[in-house]
Design brief:
It is built from 14 helices and 26 strands. The strands form seven sheets. Strands 4-3-5-6-7 form a five-stranded parallel sheet, with helices on both faces. Strands 12-13-14-15-16 form a five-stranded mixed sheet, sandwiched between helices. The longest helix has 19 residues. The N and C termini lie far apart (about 45 Å).
Length: about 500
Protein backbone atom coordinates (compact mmCIF):
# COMPACT_ATOMS: atom_id res chain seq x y z
CA UNK A 1 0.00 0.00 0.00
CA UNK A 2 1.18 3.51 -0.82
CA UNK A 3 0.62 6.32 1.65
CA UNK A 4 -1.81 8.36 -0.46
CA UNK A 5 -4.06 5.30 -0.80
CA UNK A 6 -5.30 5.81 2.76
CA UNK A 7 -7.40 8.68 1.35
CA UNK A 8 -8.54 6.62 -1.63
CA UNK A 9 -9.60 3.87 0.76
CA UNK A 10 -11.45 6.37 2.96
CA UNK A 11 -13.27 7.80 -0.05
CA UNK A 12 -14.40 4.31 -1.07
CA UNK A 13 -15.53 3.26 2.40
CA UNK A 14 -17.13 6.45 3.70
CA UNK A 15 -17.16 9.16 1.00
CA UNK A 16 -19.30 11.65 2.93
CA UNK A 17 -17.44 11.37 6.23
CA UNK A 18 -15.46 14.49 7.23
CA UNK A 19 -11.74 14.03 6.63
CA UNK A 20 -10.64 17.60 7.42
CA UNK A 21 -12.23 20.53 9.21
CA UNK A 22 -10.65 23.96 8.81
CA UNK A 23 -12.23 27.20 10.02
CA UNK A 24 -15.62 25.46 10.19
CA UNK A 25 -15.26 24.30 6.56
CA UNK A 26 -15.60 20.54 6.21
CA UNK A 27 -13.87 18.48 3.52
CA UNK A 28 -15.21 14.94 3.10
CA UNK A 29 -13.09 11.94 2.16
CA UNK A 30 -14.56 11.99 -1.35
CA UNK A 31 -13.81 15.71 -1.71
CA UNK A 32 -10.27 15.27 -0.38
CA UNK A 33 -9.55 12.39 -2.73
CA UNK A 34 -10.95 14.43 -5.61
CA UNK A 35 -8.73 17.38 -4.67
CA UNK A 36 -5.65 15.14 -4.40
CA UNK A 37 -6.23 13.77 -7.89
CA UNK A 38 -7.06 17.20 -9.34
CA UNK A 39 -3.88 18.75 -7.98
CA UNK A 40 -1.78 15.75 -8.99
CA UNK A 41 -3.13 16.08 -12.53
CA UNK A 42 -2.22 19.79 -12.56
CA UNK A 43 1.27 19.11 -11.26
CA UNK A 44 1.84 16.57 -14.01
CA UNK A 45 0.26 18.51 -16.88
CA UNK A 46 1.38 22.03 -15.99
CA UNK A 47 4.73 21.51 -14.24
CA UNK A 48 5.72 18.07 -15.58
CA UNK A 49 6.18 16.69 -12.05
CA UNK A 50 7.16 13.04 -12.41
CA UNK A 51 7.92 10.14 -10.08
CA UNK A 52 11.01 10.91 -8.01
CA UNK A 53 10.80 14.69 -8.45
CA UNK A 54 10.98 16.74 -5.25
CA UNK A 55 8.62 19.60 -4.43
CA UNK A 56 9.00 21.93 -1.45
CA UNK A 57 6.08 22.74 0.84
CA UNK A 58 6.24 25.78 3.14
CA UNK A 59 2.76 26.06 4.62
CA UNK A 60 1.08 26.22 8.01
CA UNK A 61 -1.66 23.68 8.84
CA UNK A 62 -3.91 24.33 5.86
CA UNK A 63 -5.97 21.83 3.83
CA UNK A 64 -3.65 22.62 0.90
CA UNK A 65 -0.77 21.06 2.84
CA UNK A 66 -2.65 17.75 3.04
CA UNK A 67 -3.74 17.97 -0.60
CA UNK A 68 -0.26 18.81 -1.92
CA UNK A 69 1.54 16.23 0.25
CA UNK A 70 -0.67 13.37 -0.94
CA UNK A 71 -0.96 14.63 -4.54
CA UNK A 72 2.82 14.35 -4.78
CA UNK A 73 2.59 10.81 -3.46
CA UNK A 74 -0.15 10.12 -6.05
CA UNK A 75 2.45 10.88 -8.74
CA UNK A 76 5.30 9.06 -7.01
CA UNK A 77 6.95 12.43 -6.35
CA UNK A 78 8.47 13.46 -3.01
CA UNK A 79 7.32 16.19 -0.61
CA UNK A 80 10.02 18.33 1.06
CA UNK A 81 8.22 20.29 3.79
CA UNK A 82 9.97 23.02 5.76
CA UNK A 83 9.13 25.14 8.78
CA UNK A 84 7.42 28.42 7.71
CA UNK A 85 9.54 30.22 10.32
CA UNK A 86 12.79 29.53 8.48
CA UNK A 87 14.72 32.33 6.84
CA UNK A 88 15.79 32.43 3.19
CA UNK A 89 19.34 31.00 3.66
CA UNK A 90 17.94 28.07 5.67
CA UNK A 91 15.30 27.28 3.06
CA UNK A 92 17.81 27.63 0.23
CA UNK A 93 20.16 25.11 1.84
CA UNK A 94 17.40 22.49 2.29
CA UNK A 95 15.67 22.87 -1.05
CA UNK A 96 18.97 23.10 -2.94
CA UNK A 97 20.18 19.93 -1.24
CA UNK A 98 16.92 18.17 -2.14
CA UNK A 99 16.90 19.60 -5.67
CA UNK A 100 13.26 20.70 -5.55
CA UNK A 101 11.60 21.33 -8.92
CA UNK A 102 8.87 23.58 -7.51
CA UNK A 103 7.67 24.95 -4.16
CA UNK A 104 4.32 25.65 -2.55
CA UNK A 105 3.87 28.50 -0.08
CA UNK A 106 1.40 31.13 1.12
CA UNK A 107 1.42 34.96 1.14
CA UNK A 108 3.12 35.44 4.52
CA UNK A 109 6.22 33.53 3.39
CA UNK A 110 6.24 34.29 -0.34
CA UNK A 111 8.90 37.00 -0.02
CA UNK A 112 11.17 34.65 1.93
CA UNK A 113 10.76 31.91 -0.68
CA UNK A 114 11.50 34.36 -3.48
CA UNK A 115 14.66 35.47 -1.65
CA UNK A 116 15.77 31.82 -1.51
CA UNK A 117 14.79 30.98 -5.10
CA UNK A 118 17.95 32.31 -6.86
CA UNK A 119 20.03 30.00 -4.65
CA UNK A 120 17.99 26.96 -5.72
CA UNK A 121 18.66 26.57 -9.48
CA UNK A 122 16.43 23.50 -9.77
CA UNK A 123 13.33 25.38 -8.53
CA UNK A 124 11.36 26.59 -11.54
CA UNK A 125 7.95 27.54 -10.16
CA UNK A 126 6.41 28.78 -6.91
CA UNK A 127 2.74 27.95 -6.26
CA UNK A 128 0.93 30.39 -3.99
CA UNK A 129 -1.99 29.36 -1.78
CA UNK A 130 -4.50 32.22 -1.43
CA UNK A 131 -3.08 34.16 -4.37
CA UNK A 132 -4.66 37.52 -5.16
CA UNK A 133 -3.90 40.18 -7.74
CA UNK A 134 -0.82 40.36 -9.95
CA UNK A 135 1.91 37.87 -9.04
CA UNK A 136 5.69 38.09 -9.54
CA UNK A 137 7.32 36.20 -12.39
CA UNK A 138 7.58 32.50 -11.70
CA UNK A 139 4.71 32.52 -9.19
CA UNK A 140 1.37 30.87 -9.98
CA UNK A 141 -1.85 30.47 -7.97
CA UNK A 142 -2.12 27.10 -6.24
CA UNK A 143 -5.71 26.81 -7.44
CA UNK A 144 -4.67 27.18 -11.08
CA UNK A 145 -3.27 23.68 -10.93
CA UNK A 146 -6.49 22.09 -9.70
CA UNK A 147 -7.57 20.04 -12.74
CA UNK A 148 -10.70 18.09 -11.77
CA UNK A 149 -11.42 17.14 -15.41
CA UNK A 150 -9.15 14.98 -17.51
CA UNK A 151 -7.95 11.47 -18.14
CA UNK A 152 -7.71 9.28 -15.06
CA UNK A 153 -4.25 9.26 -13.59
CA UNK A 154 -2.39 5.96 -13.86
CA UNK A 155 -1.22 4.30 -10.63
CA UNK A 156 1.85 5.90 -9.08
CA UNK A 157 4.90 4.22 -10.69
CA UNK A 158 6.65 3.62 -7.36
CA UNK A 159 6.67 0.98 -4.64
CA UNK A 160 6.04 1.04 -0.92
CA UNK A 161 9.77 1.21 -0.22
CA UNK A 162 10.38 4.29 -2.37
CA UNK A 163 10.65 7.65 -0.58
CA UNK A 164 7.46 9.67 -0.20
CA UNK A 165 8.84 12.54 1.92
CA UNK A 166 12.18 14.10 2.85
CA UNK A 167 12.08 15.66 6.33
CA UNK A 168 15.16 17.73 7.05
CA UNK A 169 16.59 17.55 10.54
CA UNK A 170 19.78 19.11 11.82
CA UNK A 171 22.58 17.02 13.24
CA UNK A 172 25.73 17.55 15.22
CA UNK A 173 27.28 19.37 12.25
CA UNK A 174 24.48 21.92 12.27
CA UNK A 175 23.71 21.26 8.60
CA UNK A 176 20.25 19.75 8.04
CA UNK A 177 20.07 16.22 6.66
CA UNK A 178 17.18 14.91 4.57
CA UNK A 179 15.55 11.95 6.29
CA UNK A 180 14.07 9.76 3.55
CA UNK A 181 10.86 8.06 4.65
CA UNK A 182 8.88 5.62 2.52
CA UNK A 183 5.21 4.70 2.49
CA UNK A 184 6.12 1.49 4.30
CA UNK A 185 8.14 3.34 6.98
CA UNK A 186 5.19 5.59 7.81
CA UNK A 187 2.39 3.04 7.47
CA UNK A 188 4.26 0.49 9.57
CA UNK A 189 4.75 3.12 12.28
CA UNK A 190 1.05 3.96 12.16
CA UNK A 191 0.09 0.30 12.45
CA UNK A 192 2.47 -0.10 15.40
CA UNK A 193 0.88 2.93 17.12
CA UNK A 194 -2.57 1.46 16.51
CA UNK A 195 -1.53 -1.90 17.96
CA UNK A 196 -0.64 -0.10 21.18
CA UNK A 197 -3.40 2.55 21.35
CA UNK A 198 -6.34 0.71 19.71
CA UNK A 199 -8.10 3.86 18.49
CA UNK A 200 -11.50 3.88 16.79
CA UNK A 201 -12.40 4.82 13.18
CA UNK A 202 -14.46 7.79 14.39
CA UNK A 203 -11.69 9.58 16.30
CA UNK A 204 -11.42 13.34 15.96
CA UNK A 205 -7.87 14.69 16.17
CA UNK A 206 -6.99 18.30 16.93
CA UNK A 207 -4.09 19.09 14.63
CA UNK A 208 -2.11 22.01 16.04
CA UNK A 209 1.25 20.28 15.83
CA UNK A 210 2.89 21.58 12.64
CA UNK A 211 2.45 19.32 9.63
CA UNK A 212 6.00 20.07 8.44
CA UNK A 213 7.21 18.08 11.48
CA UNK A 214 7.26 14.27 11.54
CA UNK A 215 5.12 14.12 14.73
CA UNK A 216 2.36 16.18 13.12
CA UNK A 217 2.62 14.36 9.77
CA UNK A 218 2.48 10.83 11.10
CA UNK A 219 0.18 11.18 14.10
CA UNK A 220 -2.13 14.11 13.30
CA UNK A 221 -2.44 13.74 9.52
CA UNK A 222 -1.62 10.25 8.33
CA UNK A 223 -2.68 8.19 11.38
CA UNK A 224 -5.99 10.03 11.50
CA UNK A 225 -6.66 9.51 7.77
CA UNK A 226 -5.56 5.85 8.02
CA UNK A 227 -8.13 5.33 10.79
CA UNK A 228 -10.85 7.07 8.81
CA UNK A 229 -11.06 9.80 11.44
CA UNK A 230 -11.46 13.56 11.22
CA UNK A 231 -8.53 15.96 11.55
CA UNK A 232 -9.41 19.46 12.78
CA UNK A 233 -6.68 21.77 11.48
CA UNK A 234 -5.51 24.83 13.40
CA UNK A 235 -2.92 27.18 11.91
CA UNK A 236 -1.25 28.12 15.18
CA UNK A 237 -1.39 27.35 18.86
CA UNK A 238 -3.29 29.80 21.06
CA UNK A 239 -4.17 28.35 24.47
CA UNK A 240 -7.73 29.63 24.87
CA UNK A 241 -8.62 28.95 21.23
CA UNK A 242 -7.28 25.43 21.67
CA UNK A 243 -9.55 24.74 24.65
CA UNK A 244 -12.48 26.17 22.70
CA UNK A 245 -11.69 23.92 19.72
CA UNK A 246 -11.37 20.84 21.92
CA UNK A 247 -14.83 21.56 23.29
CA UNK A 248 -16.54 22.72 20.09
CA UNK A 249 -15.36 19.88 17.84
CA UNK A 250 -15.67 17.15 20.49
CA UNK A 251 -12.06 16.18 20.00
CA UNK A 252 -11.13 12.67 21.16
CA UNK A 253 -7.33 12.70 20.57
CA UNK A 254 -5.08 15.70 21.23
CA UNK A 255 -1.39 15.31 20.31
CA UNK A 256 0.82 18.07 21.70
CA UNK A 257 4.22 18.95 23.11
CA UNK A 258 4.84 19.69 26.81
CA UNK A 259 5.01 23.45 26.24
CA UNK A 260 1.43 23.36 24.94
CA UNK A 261 0.14 21.54 28.01
CA UNK A 262 1.95 24.02 30.26
CA UNK A 263 0.35 26.92 28.38
CA UNK A 264 -3.15 25.41 28.61
CA UNK A 265 -2.75 25.34 32.38
CA UNK A 266 -2.24 29.12 32.33
CA UNK A 267 -5.67 29.79 30.79
CA UNK A 268 -7.76 31.37 33.57
CA UNK A 269 -10.40 29.02 34.94
CA UNK A 270 -13.17 31.56 34.32
CA UNK A 271 -15.41 28.82 33.03
CA UNK A 272 -15.27 25.06 32.82
CA UNK A 273 -14.56 23.66 29.36
CA UNK A 274 -16.49 20.51 28.46
CA UNK A 275 -13.69 18.17 27.39
CA UNK A 276 -15.64 15.01 28.19
CA UNK A 277 -15.15 13.73 24.62
CA UNK A 278 -11.34 13.70 25.07
CA UNK A 279 -10.02 10.14 25.39
CA UNK A 280 -6.29 10.72 25.41
CA UNK A 281 -3.71 13.41 25.10
CA UNK A 282 -0.43 12.34 23.53
CA UNK A 283 2.85 14.08 24.34
CA UNK A 284 6.20 13.94 22.58
CA UNK A 285 8.89 16.17 21.11
CA UNK A 286 10.42 17.02 24.50
CA UNK A 287 10.48 15.58 28.04
CA UNK A 288 7.18 16.07 29.88
CA UNK A 289 7.72 17.69 33.31
CA UNK A 290 5.90 15.58 35.88
CA UNK A 291 4.31 18.60 37.66
CA UNK A 292 2.82 19.79 34.36
CA UNK A 293 1.46 16.35 33.56
CA UNK A 294 -0.14 15.86 36.98
CA UNK A 295 -1.64 19.37 37.04
CA UNK A 296 -3.06 19.03 33.52
CA UNK A 297 -4.61 15.66 34.24
CA UNK A 298 -6.12 16.92 37.49
CA UNK A 299 -7.65 20.00 35.87
CA UNK A 300 -8.88 18.49 32.60
CA UNK A 301 -9.47 14.88 33.66
CA UNK A 302 -7.64 13.35 30.71
CA UNK A 303 -4.61 11.05 30.72
CA UNK A 304 -1.47 12.15 28.87
CA UNK A 305 0.32 9.27 27.14
CA UNK A 306 3.96 10.26 26.75
CA UNK A 307 5.96 8.73 23.92
CA UNK A 308 9.26 9.14 22.14
CA UNK A 309 10.95 8.74 18.81
CA UNK A 310 13.13 10.62 16.30
CA UNK A 311 12.23 11.75 12.77
CA UNK A 312 14.48 8.98 11.45
CA UNK A 313 12.04 6.43 12.92
CA UNK A 314 8.92 7.90 11.27
CA UNK A 315 8.91 8.98 14.24
CA UNK A 316 7.19 7.04 17.07
CA UNK A 317 9.17 4.24 18.72
CA UNK A 318 7.65 4.00 22.21
CA UNK A 319 4.58 5.18 24.10
CA UNK A 320 2.91 4.61 27.41
CA UNK A 321 -0.03 2.24 27.00
CA UNK A 322 -3.60 3.46 27.55
CA UNK A 323 -5.20 2.34 30.82
CA UNK A 324 -6.98 -0.65 29.28
CA UNK A 325 -3.70 -1.97 27.81
CA UNK A 326 -1.37 -1.76 30.78
CA UNK A 327 0.38 0.40 33.34
CA UNK A 328 1.16 4.01 32.50
CA UNK A 329 4.39 5.09 34.17
CA UNK A 330 4.70 8.86 34.52
CA UNK A 331 8.27 9.92 33.86
CA UNK A 332 8.90 7.20 31.29
CA UNK A 333 8.31 7.30 27.54
CA UNK A 334 6.59 3.94 27.76
CA UNK A 335 7.09 0.61 26.03
CA UNK A 336 8.54 -0.10 22.58
CA UNK A 337 5.81 -0.28 19.97
CA UNK A 338 4.98 -3.77 18.64
CA UNK A 339 7.37 -4.80 15.89
CA UNK A 340 9.92 -2.12 16.80
CA UNK A 341 13.09 -3.23 18.58
CA UNK A 342 14.76 -0.84 21.02
CA UNK A 343 17.99 -1.64 22.84
CA UNK A 344 20.43 0.28 25.00
CA UNK A 345 24.02 0.11 23.70
CA UNK A 346 27.30 1.21 25.19
CA UNK A 347 29.88 3.18 23.19
CA UNK A 348 31.12 -0.07 21.59
CA UNK A 349 27.62 -1.13 20.51
CA UNK A 350 27.32 -3.79 23.19
CA UNK A 351 23.88 -4.23 24.72
CA UNK A 352 23.61 -3.03 28.31
CA UNK A 353 21.58 -4.73 31.04
CA UNK A 354 18.40 -3.37 32.62
CA UNK A 355 18.97 -0.19 34.62
CA UNK A 356 22.24 0.83 32.93
CA UNK A 357 22.39 4.07 30.94
CA UNK A 358 23.44 4.02 27.30
CA UNK A 359 22.39 5.08 23.83
CA UNK A 360 18.99 4.19 22.42
CA UNK A 361 19.26 2.20 19.19
CA UNK A 362 16.27 1.18 17.07
CA UNK A 363 15.56 -1.46 14.45
CA UNK A 364 12.35 -2.00 12.48
CA UNK A 365 10.46 -1.26 9.28
CA UNK A 366 9.79 2.27 10.54
CA UNK A 367 13.50 3.20 10.38
CA UNK A 368 14.36 5.59 7.53
CA UNK A 369 15.76 4.62 4.15
CA UNK A 370 18.73 6.87 4.96
CA UNK A 371 19.81 10.50 4.65
CA UNK A 372 19.37 11.87 1.14
CA UNK A 373 22.62 12.33 -0.74
CA UNK A 374 24.62 11.69 2.44
CA UNK A 375 25.96 8.11 2.55
CA UNK A 376 28.57 8.87 5.22
CA UNK A 377 25.99 10.22 7.69
CA UNK A 378 23.70 7.28 6.87
CA UNK A 379 26.46 4.75 7.52
CA UNK A 380 27.37 6.42 10.81
CA UNK A 381 23.77 6.50 12.02
CA UNK A 382 22.94 2.93 10.88
CA UNK A 383 25.93 1.09 12.33
CA UNK A 384 25.50 -2.68 12.53
CA UNK A 385 21.93 -2.47 11.27
CA UNK A 386 20.68 -0.34 14.17
CA UNK A 387 19.69 3.32 14.02
CA UNK A 388 21.70 5.16 16.67
CA UNK A 389 19.55 7.94 18.10
CA UNK A 390 22.13 9.75 20.22
CA UNK A 391 19.61 9.78 23.10
CA UNK A 392 20.78 8.40 26.43
CA UNK A 393 18.29 6.25 28.33
CA UNK A 394 17.71 3.14 30.40
CA UNK A 395 15.11 0.40 30.71
CA UNK A 396 13.47 -0.55 33.99
CA UNK A 397 12.70 -4.13 35.00
CA UNK A 398 9.27 -3.93 33.34
CA UNK A 399 10.65 -2.85 29.97
CA UNK A 400 9.68 0.83 30.26
CA UNK A 401 12.08 3.30 28.71
CA UNK A 402 13.37 6.36 30.60
CA UNK A 403 15.20 9.16 28.78
CA UNK A 404 18.16 10.30 30.86
CA UNK A 405 19.65 12.87 28.52
CA UNK A 406 18.81 14.18 25.09
CA UNK A 407 20.87 14.31 21.96
CA UNK A 408 24.14 15.86 22.89
CA UNK A 409 23.72 19.55 23.61
CA UNK A 410 20.38 19.78 21.77
CA UNK A 411 17.95 22.49 22.92
CA UNK A 412 14.20 21.89 22.58
CA UNK A 413 12.21 25.11 22.21
CA UNK A 414 8.48 24.46 22.46
CA UNK A 415 8.96 20.97 21.05
CA UNK A 416 11.18 22.08 18.14
CA UNK A 417 14.81 20.98 18.06
CA UNK A 418 17.48 23.67 18.05
CA UNK A 419 21.02 22.44 17.45
CA UNK A 420 23.52 24.80 19.08
CA UNK A 421 26.22 24.17 16.47
CA UNK A 422 24.02 25.67 13.76
CA UNK A 423 23.47 28.84 15.83
CA UNK A 424 27.14 28.97 16.82
CA UNK A 425 28.18 28.75 13.18
CA UNK A 426 26.12 31.87 12.44
CA UNK A 427 27.35 33.79 15.49
CA UNK A 428 30.98 33.03 14.61
CA UNK A 429 30.43 34.99 11.38
CA UNK A 430 30.03 38.17 13.45
CA UNK A 431 33.22 40.25 13.24
CA UNK A 432 33.38 40.81 17.02
CA UNK A 433 32.99 37.15 18.08
CA UNK A 434 36.09 35.12 18.87
CA UNK A 435 34.41 32.11 20.45
CA UNK A 436 30.89 31.22 21.42
CA UNK A 437 28.77 28.50 22.99
CA UNK A 438 25.00 28.24 22.71
CA UNK A 439 23.22 26.44 25.54
CA UNK A 440 19.67 25.97 26.74
CA UNK A 441 18.17 27.97 29.57
CA UNK A 442 15.06 26.62 31.31
CA UNK A 443 11.94 28.57 30.35
CA UNK A 444 8.49 28.10 31.91
CA UNK A 445 6.63 28.58 28.62
CA UNK A 446 8.86 27.00 25.99
CA UNK A 447 10.70 24.43 28.11
CA UNK A 448 14.02 25.90 27.04
CA UNK A 449 15.33 28.92 25.13
CA UNK A 450 18.80 29.31 23.60
CA UNK A 451 21.29 31.73 25.09
CA UNK A 452 24.74 32.58 23.75
CA UNK A 453 27.91 32.83 25.81
CA UNK A 454 30.47 34.77 23.79
CA UNK A 455 34.16 35.53 24.10
CA UNK A 456 34.69 38.80 22.17
CA UNK A 457 37.70 39.40 19.97
CA UNK A 458 40.46 41.59 21.51
CA UNK A 459 39.54 45.28 21.57
CA UNK A 460 35.98 44.50 20.42
CA UNK A 461 33.06 45.80 22.46
CA UNK A 462 30.00 44.15 20.92
CA UNK A 463 26.47 45.15 21.90
CA UNK A 464 24.25 42.20 22.96
CA UNK A 465 21.28 43.67 21.09
CA UNK A 466 23.34 43.95 17.92
CA UNK A 467 24.44 40.30 18.24
CA UNK A 468 20.82 39.20 18.59
CA UNK A 469 19.80 41.35 15.62
CA UNK A 470 22.62 39.79 13.58
CA UNK A 471 21.35 36.30 14.44
CA UNK A 472 17.71 37.19 13.75
CA UNK A 473 18.58 38.22 10.19
CA UNK A 474 20.05 34.78 9.52
CA UNK A 475 18.07 32.32 11.65
CA UNK A 476 14.47 31.41 12.36
CA UNK A 477 13.27 33.30 15.43
CA UNK A 478 13.02 30.20 17.63
CA UNK A 479 16.76 29.58 17.07
CA UNK A 480 17.84 33.13 17.95
CA UNK A 481 19.49 33.46 21.38
CA UNK A 482 17.22 35.20 23.86
CA UNK A 483 20.21 36.43 25.85
CA UNK A 484 23.88 37.15 25.20
CA UNK A 485 26.48 36.81 27.94
CA UNK A 486 30.08 37.99 27.46
CA UNK A 487 32.96 36.18 29.16
CA UNK A 488 36.71 36.34 28.99
CA UNK A 489 36.94 32.58 28.41
CA UNK A 490 34.90 29.40 28.21
CA UNK A 491 35.55 26.17 30.11
CA UNK A 492 37.46 23.86 27.75
CA UNK A 493 38.57 20.23 27.71
CA UNK A 494 42.13 19.13 26.99
CA UNK A 495 41.15 18.66 23.36
CA UNK A 496 39.79 22.20 23.04
CA UNK A 497 36.12 21.31 23.28
CA UNK A 498 33.80 23.66 25.14
CA UNK A 499 32.48 21.90 28.25
CA UNK A 500 28.85 22.96 28.00
CA UNK A 501 27.70 20.97 30.99
CA UNK A 502 30.27 22.78 33.12
CA UNK A 503 29.27 26.09 31.54
CA UNK A 504 25.62 25.46 32.46
CA UNK A 505 26.67 24.67 36.00
CA UNK A 506 28.71 27.86 36.27
CA UNK A 507 25.76 29.89 35.02
CA UNK A 508 23.38 27.99 37.33
CA UNK A 509 21.26 26.83 34.38
CA UNK A 510 20.99 23.18 35.36
CA UNK A 511 17.47 21.86 35.94
Amino acid sequence: MLLHQIIERGAARHPDKPALIFRDHTISYAQLWGAVNAFARGLREELDIQAGDRVGIMLPNLPQFVIAYHALGRLGAIAVPVNPLLKAPEIAYIWNDAGVKAAITFPMTLETVLQAKPEVPSMQTVLLVGAEGELPDGVRPFDSLMKPQGDPLPPAPVGENDPVVFIYTSGTTGFPKGVMLSSDNILFDIEACQAMLELEPDERFLTILPLFHSFGQTVCMNFCLWLGGTSVLMERFMPQSTLEALEKHKITIFPGVPAMYAALLQVPAERAYDLSSLKYCVSGGAPMPEPVQRAFEARFNCAILEGDGPTECAPVTSVNPPPHKGVRKIGSVGLPLPGIEIKIFDENDNELPVGEIGEIVVRGRNVMLGYYNNPDATAEAMRNGWYHTGDMAKFDEDGYLYIVDRKKDMIIVGGINVYPSEVERVLMEHPAVALCAVIGKPDPERGEVPIAVIVPKPDAQPDPREIIRFARERLANFKVPREVIFRAELPMSNTGKVLKRLLKKELELEG
